[in-house]
Every structure is written in C-alpha cells, then in structure tokens.
Amino acid sequence: MNVLVIGNGGREHAVLLALKKSPKVDKLYCMKGNAGTAEIAENVNVDYMDIEAVKKFALENPQIDYYVVTPDDPLAIGLVDALESIGKRCFGPNKAAAQIEASKAFAKELMHKYGIPTAKSKTFDNYGDALDYVRAEGAPIVLKADGLALGKGVLVCETLKDAEEGLKEIMLDKAFGAAGNKIVIEECMCGLKYTPGEEVSVLCFTDGKTIVPMITSCDHKRAFDGDKGLNTGGMGTFSPCPFWTKELEKEVYDTILLPTVNALNSEGKPFKGCLYFGLMRTDKGMKVVEYNSRFGDPETQVVLPMLKTDLMDIFEAVTEERLSDIKIEWENGACVCVVVASGGYPVSYTKGKPITIGDTGETVIVHAGTAIKDGKLVTNGGRVLGVVAKGKDIEEAREKAYKAVDNISFENMFYRKVIGIKYREV
Ligand code: AMP
Ligand code: GLY
Fold it and tell me: Is residue 316 in contact with ligand 2, taking CB distance under 6 Å?
C-alpha cells in the first residue's frame, strides 16, 4: 500500500515512523511534512487546508491507497468527507464527528446531555452575559474559546481580575480570532493549588462501534518548569501514566469512553479514527477536560513507539469497522519525549536558525518545526524537535532523552527539564 499522512508536525513524523514498520506499506507520502518526514516519505507540497487542491492531487495520484488525516483543522473543515466523496480510504473522523474537538460548546453540551462526567459549564456568545456569569461564579474559573486555537485557547484564571481580562481578550479583542465568538466558562476542577500531574491523555482507536484505549500518556502543557507560563501545544510527554490502573481503565471505559461513542452515534455523528480523551483525576472520579478528534501531539510520539501491533492493520480495521476483530498489543516499559522549542514559543519566535544534532544515542529524533534551507537543517516552527527515548521505566527513558538533548543546539533553544517527573514537580 502507498499511504499519505496529512500534517507537518512531530505527530505526523511519529505516525510515519510507525507505518514504516508495517510490511504492508510500500511507499509513504506526507503533505506537507518537514525535514524529518522527508527522510522516510515523499513530501507533497500541497496546502491541506485547500480541499479542492487536495482532491485534485488525490485524483492525479491514484497510486496512493490510503490517507491519514491527523491535524484538527483539516478534519474540522471536512477533508475526510471530501476524500471519501472521491472514493479514497481514510483514517480520521468526518466533519460532523470532528465537531467534538472543533467546538468546545458542542462537546460540553454532549457531555451534559449524556451524563458524561465533566466540569460544570455554561456557554455564551454575548460578552455582557458572560461577564455577569464570571462575576457571579468568581475565581478560580476557566475560560475556553469555543473554536480551534492551536491548544492555546484555554485560560485557567486564578483571580477575578484575570478572568475579566481573559474574557475581554477572547471575546472583544479576539485573541484567538473567530474561535472566541463563543466562550465556554467552566468550573475549575482542582482549585488553585492543584497537584500537577493529575491529568492523563487516553488516545483511543474507534470505528464507531468498538473503542480501544491505547497505552496512556501524560503531557506537560505549560511552557516553563514549575508549570509556569502559558499553555502550549505540549512541551513533552511520557508513557504510561503512573497513576493508571486496570480498575481506573474500567471506570473510564464504562463512564466515559463507551458513553461518548454511544452519544456521538445517538447524535448521528458516528466517530471513526483516533478519539483522544484529556482526563483529570478529581475527588469525584475521573472527568473529561477535553476531547480531541485526532492523535495528540506530542502524545503520539510516546504512544506509537510502544505499539507492537501493525498500525496499518489497525487503521484498515477502523476504516472497515472491524476493530473488534483485532488484538492490539503494547510493549512493557516506558517512553519519554522531550520537546526542544524555539525561544519565545508559544507567543513569538524566529525561524530559520541552523540546528546542530550530535550524538543522540539510542533516541529517535522526531521532527516538528524543521526545514532544509540551502542544504542545512534549520528551525521552522515553535516546537522544533522531539527527543524520544524508551527504557525499562520512565527514569531510564528520561535519562537517555536528556543525554541526547545535551547534544542538540540552535540559537535560543529551550526545553523543560522535568519531563517525566511531573508528579514530583510543584
Ligand atoms: P484544554 O486545551 O481544554 O486541554 O485545556 C488546557 C489545560 O487547561 C488542561 O490540560 C488543564 O490543565 C487546564 N484545564 C482545562 N479545563 C480545566 C478545568 N475545568 N479545571 C482545571 N483546569 C483545566
Ligand atoms: N498535546 C495536546 C494535544 O495534542 O492537543
């Protein structure tokens, strides 16, 4: 099979690396890709947000048998629907199902309607009403822009003043553009002094009937150590989640995973692809923080290296709605990904800085924001590389990863030093 993966980041490089191991896969393509994907796939220079251009490419390239649509934005505008309409097989939800991520208001409504545990919330499209509600509820309080905002549209506000300012930024100043036309205002699930590390990412394969959780992972979302700074797309991950147990998995499967699949079916929006559950452990059990309609970035970088089963077999089983027929197996041990970023991320940063990569030992370097310029590897984004290491436990994996990070450099490079030790970090 010839397979094309859509996207430019570390997650896409990680998906390609997993597909490369499949004996079924002949040739890989990536649209548009980065310097890392170019090493194992043919990069295709087509704008994947231009649906007509992608369709034209697909019709002109009948040798490509299967499309994997990974980023949230093309899913939200219906790229899977478009490819399927011309007979192409895809991994990824259609536009209707992708709403579970593309609209936080829709996701919250779904959870409230079907009794799926989540924080209390209310949705507003009017600034005045939203402000009244924020003042009535008081701080701490969480503000969420309804639409897609590169993982940055959530403000956890510790004081009423922060909340009032945040509300203005989102709804009046449009800090996240049209994503802030509507806002979800949510109860803060853990108060101010929450213990970092009570969150877990549960990525699942689902064909709309069966849902199978992957090995768990944890993300470090804040930009700086001490869990300071803005939320980012993710500064590093580790797998598995240390507090995860078989009992917890059963609780989550019964109260969250299966009810979500059923709720989407009841709404006439069956979901096929990777459904990602961002969960928080609270004193009232596990609750949903967010849904994503896709693989997480950088969760995928630590989850897929642990997969023993052929990823292409799983993708095809999802497409053909026979996921219940296959057994999905995971390695023992642990995996850590340290993200190396451009100074200034997630706000503003410069691109085009030459990257030097020395001895990186047994790690795998997953490329995110990289490009080749005049024959040289240069930075081309906020998150530049992910350094991925496996070990018998998280300690061993993180040691290997940080040893490799020491041998990588570019101007203004920064990274968090505590990836994998989240539970001891305050
Ligand atoms: P999201 O983009 O929805 O995952 O939110 C980003 C981060 O904000 C989450 O990973 C949490 O750490 C935090 N967050 C979101 N919602 C809440 C909430 N209701 N209570 C506390 N923290 C939250
Ligand atoms: N790492 C969080 C996300 O992919 O949204």
Answer: no
End-to-end CA gap in the chain: 48
> Under DSSP, is residue 347 helix (H, G, I), strand (E, B) or coil?
coil
Written as one letter, the residue type at 331 is: E
DSSP 87: T
71 pocket-lining for ligand 2 (C-beta < 6 Å): no
Structure tokens given for 180: 């802030």
pLDDT in single tens digits along all 426 residues of the chain: 999 999 999 999 999 999 999 999 999 999 999 999 999 999 999 999 999 999 999 999 999 999 999 999 999 999 999 999 999 999 999 999 999 999 999 999 999 999 999 999 999 999 999 999 999 999 999 999 999 887 778 888 989 999 999 999 999 999 999 999 999 999 998 744 445 448 899 999 999 999 999 999 999 988 998 878 888 889 999 999 988 999 999 999 999 999 999 999 999 999 999 999 999 988 888 999 999 999 999 999 999 999 999 999 999 999 999 999 999 999 999 999 999 999 999 999 999 999 999 999 999 999 999 999 999 999 999 999 999 999 999 999 999 999 999 999 999 999 999 999 865 443
Task: Say what the pTM is.
Answer: 0.95
Domain boundary among 142, 159, 187: 187
The answer to whether 263 and 116 are in contact (CB under 8 A) is yes
Q: Is the CB of 156 under 6 A from ligand 1?
A: yes
Question: Last residue of a domain, which of 187, 220, 236?
Answer: 187
Ligand 2 atom closest to 234 (CA): 1
Structural domain boundaries, residue 283:
199-325
Per-residue tokens: 206: 């689902």
Report d(CA 66, CA 62) in Å as an integer: 10
80, 61: one domain: yes
d(Cα 367, Cα 340) in Å, to the nearest integer? Answer: 10
10 lines ligand 2 (CB under 6 A): no
Q: Is residue 133 domain-shared with residue 178, that is, in the same domain?
A: yes
User: Could you tell me the CATH number of the domain that includes residue 11?
Assistant: 3.40.50.20
Q: Which of 201, 214, 231, 241 to mutate to test the pocket of ligand 2 (most atoms within 8 A of CB)?
A: 201
